[in-house]
Amino acid sequence: MTRRRLLVVLGLGVLVTAALAGLLRSAGPAGRADPVAEVAAGLRCPACQGESLAESRSPIAASMRQVIADQVAQGREPEQIHRWFVQRYGDEVLAQPPTRGPGLLLWVVPAVALLGGGLAAARTLRPGRREAAGPTVPHGRPRSSRIVWWLTAAGLVALVATVAVAADRLTPPATRPPPADPAVVSLRLAQDLEGQQRYGAAAQLYREALTARPDDDAIRLRLAFALLRAADAPGAERSAREVLGHTPDSPDGLLVLGLAQRTTRPAEAPVTLRRFLAVAPGHPAATEIRRLLGS
Amino acid sequence: MAPATILLLTLGVGVVLAAGERPGPGVAHRPRAAPALAGTTLPGQRYDLAAARGHVVLVNVFASWCGPCRDELPLLVGTGRRWAPQGLQVVGLNLRDGPDAVRALLAEARAEDLTVVPDPEGVRAVEWGVRGVPETFVVDRDGRIVAHQPGVVTAKWLEQHLAPLLGTP
Amino acid sequence: MLADLGTASLAAGLLTAPLAALLWLRVALAGPAARPARLASAAALLAAATAVVALETALLTHDFSVRFVAENGGRHVPVYYTVTSLWSAMDGSLLLWLLVLAAYAALLARGRPDRLRAYAMVVVSVVTTFFFALSVFAANPFRAVTPAPADGPGPNPLLQQHPAMGVHPPLLYAGYLGTVVPFALALAAPLAGPAGRRWLRVARPWALVSWCTLTAGIVLGAWWSYAVLGWGGYWAWDPVENASLLPWLTTTAFLHTTLGGGRGRERWNSVLACAGFLLVLLGTFLTRSGAVASVHAFTDSPLGPLLLGFVLLAVLTATVLTGRPRTAPAPAPASPLRSRGTAVLGNAALLLTIAATVLTGTVLPLLAEPVTGSRAAVGAGYYHRTAVPLAVLVLLLAGVTPALRVRGRAEALRRLVLPGAAGLATVACVGLSSRPGTAALTGFGAAAFVLAGLATARPLLRPAVLGHAGLALLALGVAASTAYGRAEERTLRVGETLRVSDVSVRLVSVQRSAPAGRMAVRARLAVSSAGTTRTAVPALRYDPARETAVTVPAIDGGVRRDVYLTLLAVSADSGTATVRLAVNPLVGVIWAGGAVATAGGVLALARAVRRHRHRRPEPAGARTAVAAGAPA
Asked: Tell me, what's a Pfam family for it (chain B) (predicted)?
C-alpha cells in the first residue's frame, strides 16, 4: 500500500517537473518569429475598430507595417518604434492602453472584483454572525396597498411620458440620406472602373445609368468618353451625336465626336475638331487638339 | 457590498456615460512642426515642403481608389486656384496608388496642374500620422501644422482655416 | 395599410402592457382572480406578434412606403434574407425583442398566480412597457416614407451571406430576455412574503432556458463570424460579443450558486439573478446606441440616453428591493473546505471577476473619452492577459467536481490522481514538443484534466458532465486554433503556389462577373494536402447599394483542421490575385464543444420541467432541491 502510494507520488513528481519544464520552455521567447509582426501586434490600426496592425488589411495599416519593417531593419528597438508611433498617433495607437489615468481602471477593477468576490465567498462559507432576522415587510393593509397601486400607475405613466418626450427631443432632425438611387450607384461604380482603366465595363454601367435617366447628357458624355477609350469609336460617335442633338455646341460632345471620327471617318475629323476649338478655345484639352491638328 | 456603494458607483458611472454621450468639442490641436514632405512629383519635378516656407500649404492625402477623395478633389483644386495669389499651395500626397490611375483621376477632375507627390508605400503618410484617406492638413507660413481634418473637407472648413492665414476677408 | 396596422398594434401594446402591470399588481396586493391580468399579458403578446407579422409582410411584399422596408428591404434580396432583415437593423430588431419579451411574460403568467408570480409579472410588464414605448416613440419602423422609393438597398451584405443569420439573433434575444424572469423573481421575492421563499425553484428553469439559448447563440455567432467575416477568427473581443458574454457569465454562476436549493447563498443568488438582466440592458445600451463602435453596432439613435436612463432605474430598483437584509431562513452550517459550496462560490467569484474585467474593457473607451479625448477600444491583448487566465482557473475548478461527490479525503484525492496526471502529462508533452505559449498550454492541460475526470463519471449523460465536457472541448479548440493556426498572405500570378504547413494552394484562374452591376470576382484555387487535391473558390463581392466590398471566404473544413481561404484583391488585368491562406487546427472542436454544452443545458432543463410536472403540488424537499440542479 505504502509502496504504491510512493510510486504514485513519484510519478506525479516526475510529471510536475516535466510539465513545469514544458511551461518554462513555452513561455520563453521565439513564440513569434517575425519581429515586425510582434511590434505590429502591439499597435492598433487607427482606421479600424479593435484590430491590431498585425491583422488589419486596411491600406494605412499596410503602410504602417512597412514603416515598422523599415525601422526594424535600421535596428531600432520595439520600444523606440512604439514611441515613434505614439508621437504621431497619440496613446490610442497602443493596443495596450497605458496604465495611467482611466487606463488604470483596467487593472484595478479586476483586482478589486477578485478580492471582493473572494472575501464575500469566504464570508458566506464561514458566516461569523448572521444579521438578525428582521421582521417581514408589513403587507396587505388595504390603505397602503391602494396607495402603492396608484403610485405604480403614476410611475408607469411617467415612464411612458418620459420616453415620449425624451425621444422627441433627442431624435436628430431627419439626418437619414435618401435611399440609394440606382443611377447614382451605377455612376459611382462606373467612375471607379474608369479609374481602373476598365473602360468597357464602365461603359456598360453608364448605359445602365442612362436607362434610369435617359435625359442626362452628362452621363451620355461620360459614356461616349468611356467608349472612346474602350476603342469603340462607332459607339462613341453615336453617343456624341445624341448629345449634340440636344446641345449642338457642347464642347465635350464635339471633342468626343471629333476624336471618334479620327477612326470612323478621318476626313470629317479635322472639321469637327476645329469647330470644337472655335467653341471652347480655353478647354483643358484644347492644346492637345491643336497639336493633333497641327501635325 | 453595501447597497449604497453600488448605488453610488452606478450613478457615478451613469453620469460619466451620459456626459460621454454628448459629442464633446473637437479636439484642439496645438500647432506642431510639419514632418518633412519631399519627393518627385508626378511630372517628374522636385518638390520639398521645406522650400515652401512663406507659403500656406494645404496638404491633402488622397488616393484614386477612395470615393470621397475623388469627390472633394475639385473643391481643393478650386481653392488652390482661387487663393494662389495670396500664397496658397495645394499639394496632394497620393497614398498607395498607381501613376496611371492618378493621372486618370486628375484628368477627370481637370486638375492636371495639381502638385502630386506619390507615396506608393504610404510611408510618408504614416510620418504625418495619417489614419485614412482623405485627410487634409493646413501648414502655415512657418511650416507648422495648424489644422487637421480627418475625412472630407468642406468649403466652410477651408474658408475657416485658410482665410486667417492668407489674410483674406 | 400595413404601416397603420403596425403602428396601431404597437400602440395597443403600449396600452396593454402597463394595464397588465397594474392588473398584476392588484393580484399581488389584493389577490383577486388572475384571469384579467393574464388576458392583458396575452394581449400585449398579441400586439407584439401583430407588429412583427405586419413588418414581415411589408418586407416580403416590398412595401417601400414603410420606412424600415425602404431602408433595409430590396427587391433583389432572396426571400430567406428578406425575412431575416427584420433583425438586420435597429428598429426591426426591437420588434423581435418585444415579441420575445412578451412571449416570456405570457409564459410566466401561466403558472400558479401566487404573490411571488404576480409581483414578478409586474416587473416584467413594466420592462415590456418601456420597450413598447421605445418602439413607438423612438424607433417606430412603420413611419411612412413619401414618396415611396421603387427599391431599397437591402440589408447589409454581410448579413445576407450565411444561413445562421436566421437563427443566431433570435437565439441570442431569447437568451438575453430569458434573464428578465430570474431578475423579476429576485425583485419579487422580498415583496411576496412567505411565497417569496420559492423564488429560486421557479427561477432556475428559466435561467436554464436563457443559458441554453445564450450558449447556442454565442457559439453560432462565433461560427457566423468565422464563416462570413473572412478574417479567419471567431472571436474578436468586439463590444457586441462582450455584451453577449457578460450575461452568460453571470447566468452560469447563477446556475451553480442555486444548486442544492442555493441555501446559505441567498445574497449571491439574488445579486447574480439581477446582474444577468442588468448586464443585458447595459449591453443593449452600449451596443445599440452607437456609444461603442463595433462591427455589429447599429447607427446612432436617440435610444442611447433612454436606455441608459432605464438601466440606472433598473439598478436603483434592484438595489433597493434586494439590498436590504431579509428574513433569513435557517442559517446554513459552515461548509467544509472541500465541498460543493466552496467550489460553487469560488466559481461564482471567478466568473464575476471575468465579467467585471470584460465589462471594464468594454466600457473603458466611454469612460476615458472625457479625460483623454480618444475613444479607442481596448484590444484583444488585454483580455488575453486577464480574462483568459481566469477562464483557465474556472476550467480547473470544473475539473475538481468529480472529487466533490465522494466521501473521505483519501477517496477524493484518489479520484483526482488520474485526471491530474493526464493534465500534467498533456502540458509536459505539448510544452516540450512545441511552443504554444503559456495560455494555450495551460488551456490544454486544464481541458485534459476536465475530460479525463469526466471519462470515468457514471452515468455519463448528466447535465454537469455534458456542460463541463463542452466547456473543456471549447477550450481545447480555442487553444489549439490560436496556438497552431498559421496564415500567410501573398499576391499570386496564375499558376503560382502558396504554401502553409502541409497545405499548398495554386491559383488556377480569376473570374469576374457583373450581373446587374453587382460585381463579383472569384479566384479558383487548387488546394492540395496529403496527396489529395480539391478546388476552392473564395470571392470578393461588391455591393453597389451600400458601396462596400465583401469577402466571401472558402472554408475546406475537416476534423483535424480547416483550410481557410480568403481573396483580398485582384489586379486590374485579372492576372494576379492576393490570397490569404490560413490553416486553423481543431476549429471544428469549438463548435462541437458549444453543441455539447448546450445539450447539457437542455438536458438539465428537460429534467427540471419533468420534475416540476410531477411534483407541482408539494413543496420540494431537500432531496428534490439537490437533484433539481445539475450536480456540480
From this structure: AhpC-TSA
